[in-house]
Amino acid sequence: MSETSYGRLIRDGLWSNNQALVALLGLCPLLAVTNTAINGLGLGIATTAVLVLSNATVSLIRNLVRPEVRLPVFVIVIASFVTAVELSMNAWFHDLYKVLGIFIPLIVTNCAIIGRAEAFASKNHLLPAIVDGLSMGLGFTGALVALGAMRELLGMGTLFSQADLMFGATAADWSFSLGANFQGMLLAILPPGAFLGMGLMIALKNIIDGRQRKAQPAKVEAAPAGLESGAA
Amino acid sequence: MRFSTITSPHSARPNSVSRTMLLVILALLPGAAAMIWYFGWGVLINMILASVTAVACEALAVRLRNRPVLPVIGDFSAVLTALLLAVALPPLLPWWLTVIGVAFAILMVKQIYGGLGYNPFNPAMAAYVLLLVSYPVQMTSWLPPEMLNEHPLTLLQSASVIFTGALPAGLSWDALTMATPLDAMFTQLDQSRMLSEILAQPLWGDFGGRGWEWVGNWYLLGGLFLLYKRVISWHIPVSMLGSLLVIAMLFHFLDQEAYPFGMFHIFTGGTLLGAFFIATDPVSACTTRKGQLVYGACIGLLVFIIRTWGGYPDAVAFAVLLMNMAAPTIDYYTQPRAFGHQGAGRD
After folding, report:
1. What is the pLDDT of residue A220?
2. Residue A188: closest CA among chain B residues belongs to which residue?
3. B286 close to B292: Cβ distance less than 8 angstroms
């Protein structure tokens, strides 16, 4: 990977090697907190921040750390950043912090993060590692928000409710509602709804990919995408 | 078993899928008719609405999958799923809930896995659970049976309630609906009332709720017809009803005022419908004989456990779905010994 194509990195992270929809990493927070779009966005941004910082750090120390101890070192790096993010959220987004609860510290165990550290950042220079962390994080955030929006809309008939938790009091009226008469499908905001919604999203992505592949059958992929993400 | 004396080649009448499904639908009809008798026209409207929706969804899914539509529609499995769901739904359920339930059963539980024969879960019960978990208020608004019903609705009134939600003048949902006997029993037991006290209410017949027990009888009759026609084998119904009866009687003898007697569990709720029509679903149930005994017994046990200590009004659907999950494992461990081999057959 001496010659890195940033466009490819971004496309991989956002779509073709999306950590949530393709690699199926980090499913525990993905399924647990996405009962509203705002919860998904909050956790997604926190994860993205940790991912960028840990990727950058791992890339910087990649030549100093002996391979035998690399995993514990990565975990310590990730845990430090998660603690920092957790403390900052507690300080500045306290209400959102209370809603997300245990899932902020649990970002440490999100396999997407250590997966990117091991598979990409520990083998690449600083800038590609940061771009990779950012695009993977944004792809993960996108999946979280989409799933959260779908479940919130089906389950409660609202969208972006409680946006003030994140964007302050001005955002209190951002929420969109299908009306008070909408009788939500309670199952959508319960855990089974997360699994069903996740399955439907993956199916949708596969349909779109299939359509695209059919649209341009002549073009042969140079190398199978996502080869470098075999770990984790 | 026929012992014909003709010489080979023998050819029996083919036991096609559509014939089996039609026989099951036929066997379901007495119970369904009894439900219409006791709970009014709403049941019939639900059945028709569910069947139409099921066939439409099935046709849509099969078209999307580029398969020929008519043979799939013609096997009647979608209609059977719709009818099984419809008789489990409250008679005055708003129409869009019936449509959501049936669409979920056909599209998400059946066709997404590959259609008839591939679904790991019973579609009707999965849809029932979806509706029960999502819309608990509507799903527990049952009508009282005919003999206790002070405000019987005409066909037009039922249709108007189902399709527009408009109740007839002067009636409220509270006046119209009533808890199911099973719900009434366990709610009151939770309030530490004694069994003898609860059973003094007019809600009860000989074994279960008035009206309900007769619906159960007709399902039992339909089930016996299926057994006679060899559409189902005796293993699952007998082991399910047997284990439910045994465990319920055991607890009843331990504390006669806190646990309903065994026959109550059999004749209330969806037990008989479940034992003969739902647990025996050849797709999602166990296939080995020994496995079917285990499967049925576990369903009976789960029904008792969930009814007694769970929060939902009936347990058959949950029990069947849980055991659907276990069915492949049970099948794996109960493979019959191949003839001529020693040991368990699996090496």
Report:
1. 52
2. B134
3. yes
Is it the case that residue A230 has pLDDT exceeding 60?
no
Contact (CB<8Å) B108/A187: no
CB spacing of B130 vs A188 below 8 angstroms: no
- ipTM tops 0.90: no
For chain B, give the mean pLDDT: 88
- Residues of chain B in contact with residue A184, where contact means CB-CB under 8 angstroms, are 134
Indicate the pairing of strand A158-159 with strand A176-177.
antiparallel
Q: Do residues A141 and A47 lie in contact, with contact meaning Cβ atoms separated by under 8 Å? A: yes
Collect all residues of chain A within an 8 Å Cβ-Cβ radius of residue B108: 196
Residue B170's nearest CA partner among B147, B144, B148, B150 is B150
Write out pLDDT tens, residues B166-211. Answer: 788 777 787 788 888 888 888 888 888 888 888 888 888 877 788 8
Residue A177, SS3 per DSSP: strand
Question: What's the full length of chain A, in residues?
Answer: 232
Angle at B164 between CA B160 and CA B166, to 5 degrees: 70
Q: Does A192 touch chain B (CB under 8 A)?
A: yes
Check pLDDT > 60 for residue B346: no
CA distance B42 to B154: 9
B133, A192: Cβ pair inside 8 Å?
A: yes
Shortest alpha-carbon distance between residue A175 and chain B (Å): 23
Q: Is the pLDDT of residue B37 over 60?
A: yes
Domain ranges of chain A: 6-214
**B233-262, pLDDT tens digit by residue?**
999 999 999 999 999 999 999 988 888 888
What distance lies between CA B135 and its chain's CA centroid? 19
- The answer, yes or no, to whether the previous bond of B9 is cis (omega within 30 of 0) is yes
Q: Which two tokens stand for residue A60?
A: 């910087």
The nearest CA of chain A is from the CA of B167 a distance in Å of 17
Give B133's contacts in chain A (Cβ within 8 Å). 186-187, 190, 192
Query: Token digits for B346?
Result: 């699996």
